[in-house]
Amino acid sequence: MPAFARSYRFTDAVVRKPAGSVTEGLRAVDIGAPDPDALDGEHARYISALEAAGLSVHALPPLEDFPDSVFVEDPVLCLGDCAVLLRPGAPSRLGEVAAIEPALKPLFSDHARIDAPGFVDGGDLLLTERELVIGLSRRTDVEGARQLAEIAAARDLSARQVAAPAEVLHLKSACAVLDEETLLVTKALAESGVFAGYRCLVVPAGEDYAANAVRVNDVVLLSEGHPRTAEMLAQADYQVVALPTVEVRKLDAGLSCMSLRFAR
Ligand code: CIR
Questions:
Q1: Nearest residue CA, atom 7 of ligand 1?
Q2: Average pLDDT over the chain, rounded to whole?
Q3: Fewer Cβ within 10 Å of end Cβ, the chain: N or C?
Q4: How far apart are alpha carbons 62 and 84 in whole angstroms?
Q5: pLDDT tens digit string along 28-62?
Q6: In the 8-state DSSP scheme, what is residue 195?
Q7: Residue ranges of domains in the chain
Q8: Which CATH number fits domain 12-262: 3.50.50.60, 3.75.10.10, 3.40.50.720, 3.40.50.970?
């Protein structure tokens, strides 16, 4: 696959409008259901930010049967021209794959899929300029990772497995790509050594949630309310766009999980 800034230069994104059933979305700790209207507002701001960053946004209709289906990052991985249909590890989310597949057909020329018994959630996949990092978590298992590494290898991309941090849902809850060589990471993940060889910008204390940022073309989308991270990124010459995430956070979600980003 072409390697020109594939990890942050995009032309298109797929999103899915939140369903009313989003109040029933999965969460590890129940701190209250998200407010559907407020979540719609966050989602609309997110779409506007993607468009302002230069992307054509394909917005899919809500799926009431799947409360977490707004988090389109989890059932699919975009690898260049290839849409890889994953197998989310939460039983209530498995059906999201068949539901999104028809929308991807016209957008990608190449298709692959993870088969049973493997499980992979897209939130555990960090695609950098040099490799695909697969986080093993409660949602992503060794068999799924093995299959995905084969799919990647067939497209000239190397993959490796790491342990996702136990205290968060997904690997990418704790890290993001900033550019060809730089990652934004939580302190714990930086200290684990899994990203030795990268330049790691470490999220300041108390702002770990901000590590789930998204570099899109010339900007970095960052969760609002993390001033020290915003300042650190600005000092490093990144252009930050802060977005509200109060409602999605109640569902253990963040900015990366609300879109599939790719270049056409
Ligand atoms: C879930 O538990 O699957 C959803 N409530 C949140 C998914 C967040 N996805 C992501 O970070 N990629």
A1: 253
A2: 97
A3: C
A4: 21
A5: 999 999 999 999 999 999 999 999 999 999 999 99
A6: T
A7: 12-262
A8: 3.75.10.10
Whole-number Å distance, alpha carbon 196 to ligand 1 midpoint, is: 27
Choosing from 78, 82, 175, 257, the catalytic residue is 257
Mean local confidence (pLDDT), 195-217: 97
**Do 114 and 144 meet the contact criterion of CB atoms below 8 Å apart?**
yes
Any ligand 1 atom below 6 A from CB of 74: yes
Look up tokens 């701001």; give the residue: 45
| Residue 124 CA, closest ligand 1 atom number | 12
Q: Which of 214, 219, 173, 223 is nearest to 15 (CA)?
A: 214
- Backbone φ and ψ for 191, nearest 5 degrees, come out as -75, -20
Whole-number Å distance between alpha carbons of 80 and 10: 10
**Ligand 1 contacts CB of residue 170 (under 6 A):** yes
Residue type for 191, please? E
